[in-house]
Specification:
The complex is a heterodimer of chains A (about 260) and B (about 160). By secondary structure, chain A is an alpha+beta fold. Helices cover about 35% and strands about 30% of the residues of chain A. Chain A has two domains: about 100 residues, no CATH class; about 150 residues, Thrombin, subunit H (Beta Barrel), CATH 2.40.10.350. Chain A has a six-stranded antiparallel β-barrel. Chain B is globular. Classes of the chains: A alpha+beta (about 260), B mainly alpha (about 160). Chains A and B meet through α1 and β1 of A and α1, α3, α4, α5 and α6 of B.
Chain lengths: ~260, ~160
């Protein structure tokens, strides 16, 4: 009886040690395992996109017409913008200001997301072989998306701004009031640590402050939808609606500093 | 052979969970297909195979997670052991009991994962935690009968083969 218990105990001990070892090893082998799964993931995402295209054909058609109108307006604005850029360059040369470096970006396609509900992660089809490294900032055409947290040779994981573990130093564009934006794993973001007398109102635009030097300055984050007081009564908070539709990401741009 | 087929099916479910299931999100929560497959495997395979499948399912889930340790690799076999112990005390048969068990395991998994992640320095507001835990448990419980119906032919086919040989 004792021998049987001892045998069982050693089997249980060895099994537990193996599982523990595996749990420690898994995070290190994750990038290469993700590379293996990249191809079926891309295929499933492609099928999903095509299927969505068929289902939402009418909506896409209307959206296409609206976007064409927007493009016409934006083209006009671009011409005006070019003039401003040229004027800015002339003035900079005149005052000998140091030119702000423009960022190089890499476009990547989203092929998957996190499988659990405890994190907000997007898996993209570009990795270290394309120049992507951990910590690089991901943006969309409308604003900030997140940050690269794991880059393998042919794919990368991007933690989205609606993940509670990602915080971004931000400012109110109008009043330059500083705060810290973090996620809530839902469609909205929270801007915290706002003083009681802070100048912030509904529909204010929030942008990155550039203070942490991780996120470039001036990237749009979202619009304020409501402002309230923290439970402690010592500070205020604001709920934001991100400019980028984080639940429907298809392509993202990764900034190479 | 049936275990291999089941393992391949689990891999397919994992890929679906990372892609197509995003369209079925309710309040940013989706049903946990991998947890469901782990429960079904535990209740229908022999303990040794069930444990191996639960470790495999945990590893698959960890490939997609951003956490610094293989959290699911550790927790899935633990829930598997819990279900094996529970099934020795009470008879777990029928879709309703399967759903109740799925909800219970999701709640345990959420609490377990949170405790580990708090020690690793990952924070989450209590409101968000409760929302995800309760909705996740309900959604996974509702998805259980559908997945069970899909996997039942494979499980029963295994049973028939076992009887023949």
């Amino acid at each position: 009886m004792f021998r049987l218990n001892k045998k069982k105990l050693s089997v249980a001990g060895i099994s537990f040690s193996c599982v523990l070892l595996l749990a420690v090893i898994v995070p290190f082998t994750r990038p290469s395992l993700l590379n293996v799964l990249k191809l079926p993931l891309s295929f499933l995402q492609f099928v999903s996109d095509e299927f969505n295209g068929l289902i939402f054909y009418h909506r896409n058609m209307i959206q296409n017409a609206i976007l064409k109108k927007e493009i016409a307006i934006l083209r006009q604005k671009l011409i005006e913008y070019d003039d401003v850029v040229l004027e800015n360059a002339r003035l900079n040369a005149l005052f000998d200001f140091k030119q702000k470096t423009s960022y190089k970006v890499i476009a990547a396609r989203v092929v998957g997301s996190s499988v659990d509900d405890w994190s907000s992660v997007a898996i993209v089809d570009k990795g270290t072989s394309h120049g992507i490294r951990n910590g690089f900032v991901a943006v969309g055409y409308k604003g900030l998306i997140g940050r690269v947290i794991e880059a393998s040779s042919r794919s990368s994981k991007v933690m989205l701004i609606n993940d509670p573990n990602l915080s971004v130093s931000a400012v109110v564009q109008r009043s330059r009031q500083e705060g810290l934006v973090s996620g809530s794993l839902s469609g909205s973001l929270v801007m915290r640590y706002l003083p009681l007398e802070s100048d912030i109102t509904v529909s204010d635009t929030i942008i990155t402050s550039g203070l942490s030097q991780v996120y470039p300055k001036g990237i749009p984050i979202g619009k304020v939808v409501s402002v309230g007081y923290e439970f402690s009564g010592l500070s205020r908070y604001a709920l934001l609606k991100p400019f980028v539709e984080l639940s429907r990401l298809e392509e993202i741009l990764i900034i190479i500093p | 052979m049936k275990t291999t087929a089941y393992a391949l099916l689990v891999c397919a479910f994992c890929l679906l969970q990372a892609t197509w299931l995003n369209a079925l999100k309710v309040f940013s929560v989706k049903p946990d297909l991998l947890l469901i497959t782990m429960i079904i495997a535990t209740l229908n395979f022999k303990p040794g195979k069930a444990m191996a499948l639960s470790v495999y399912t945990g590893v698959l889930k960890d490939i997609f997670s951003p956490f610094p340790v293989g959290l699911h690799t550790l927790l899935f076999p633990l829930w598997s052991l819990f279900i094996i112990a529970l099934s020795k005390k009470i008879v777990i048969d029928g879709t309703l009991l399967y759903s109740v068990l799925a909800a219970l395991v999701v709640i345990l998994q959420s609490i377990g994962a949170r405790i580990v992640l708090v020690f690793l320095g990952e924070t989450m507001p209590p409101g968000v935690f409760l929302r995800i835990m309760i909705l996740g448990a309900l959604y996974t419980a509702f998805a259980m009968p559908v997945i069970w119906k899909l996997l039942k032919p494979l499980i029963e086919y295994r049973d028939a083969e076992d009887t023949i040989f």
